[in-house]
Design brief:
This protein is α+β, with helices and mostly antiparallel strands. The chain has two domains: 86 residues, no CATH class; 117 residues, Trna Endonuclease, Chain: A, domain 1 (3-Layer(aba) Sandwich), CATH 3.40.1350. It contains eight helices and five strands; from the N terminus they run ααααααβββαββα. It has a five-stranded mixed beta sheet with strand order 1-2-3-4-5. The protein is globular, with a radius of gyration of 21 Å.
């Protein structure tokens, strides 16, 4: 089977810094460039020219007051990216490079492997065992199977009848404040595939010192449980393999 043609530009060694700054300053989020994966699925283009035209005809920022996206908007985002890299990222990295020691590197690897992994494990356990499991005592929350397709994006699963919904746990430091976090387009696609396969939605739960930080998600999960209790897959089509 022939590999599909690639249209993406190559940026070489610059890719890492461009990606870092773009993610850090959220310049490719839906509130800046629209829900691109949703748009391209609506378009179903066979040629890149079809997608480009469709995008600029239909794309709006995902914000309280949506704004039409134009080529000039993308150029402005590129200019902002350049300003962030040259004005903030490069000076910060240069300072870090000048101060970096061998011991920093040794300590970092050890801390990342042992300390942070253990901290994250305890946060997950606390959020689920001391939070969700007590709020929803009739629901059994299980760690996701590491061999399944969505395991990288979903930490826990919970069965409701013949369906399953998912939980992703993030430390509160993953966003500056509640309401500012938005999953990446790749993650949204993974969540959508999970829902199609297992029937239930995926919820992002923020851990604040081992407690649920975004309390509003509790009611959302409660509503999802009720929805799943009242719906079933058509006979013989259950896709729940957890």
């Amino acid at each position: 089977m022939a590999k599909p043609q690639r249209y993406s530009m190559e940026f070489g060694k610059k890719e890492k810094v461009l990606n870092y700054a773009c993610q850090t300053y959220q310049l490719s989020r839906p509130n800046k460039v629209g829900a691109v994966m949703t748009l391209i699925r609506e378009c179903q283009p066979k040629k890149i020219q079809e997608w480009e035209q469709w995008y600029f005809e239909n794309a709006y920022t995902d914000a309280k007051t949506p704004a039409k996206i134009t080529p000039e908007c993308l150029q402005e985002l590129g200019e902002r990216l350049y300003e962030k890299i040259t004005g903030i990222v490069i000076p910060e990295w240069q300072a870090a490079f000048n101060q970096l020691t061998l011991q920093d590197c040794i300590d970092y690897i050890y801390n990342l492997t042992i300390n942070r992994t253990f901290d994250g494990f305890l946060r997950e356990k606390s959020v689920v065992n001391d939070g969700l499991a007590k709020i929803f005592p009739d629901i059994n929350f299980e760690e996701s199977d590491s061999e399944l397709d969505h395991a990288g994006d979903i930490d826990y699963v919970a069965k409701v009848g013949d369906k399953t919904f998912g939980i992703q746990i993030k430390p509160v430091t993953a966003r500056a404040n509640f309401g500012n976090y938005s999953p990446t387009e790749r993650m949204k696609a993974s969540f959508a595939e999970f829902e199609e396969q297992y029937g239930g939605k995926v919820f992002v739960v923020f851990s604040l010192d081992g407690e649920i930080g975004n309390k509003e998600v509790i009611e959302q999960i409660r509503q999802e449980i009720e929805r799943l209790k009242n719906t079933t897959f058509p006979s013989g089509e259950s896709k729940n393999h957890y």
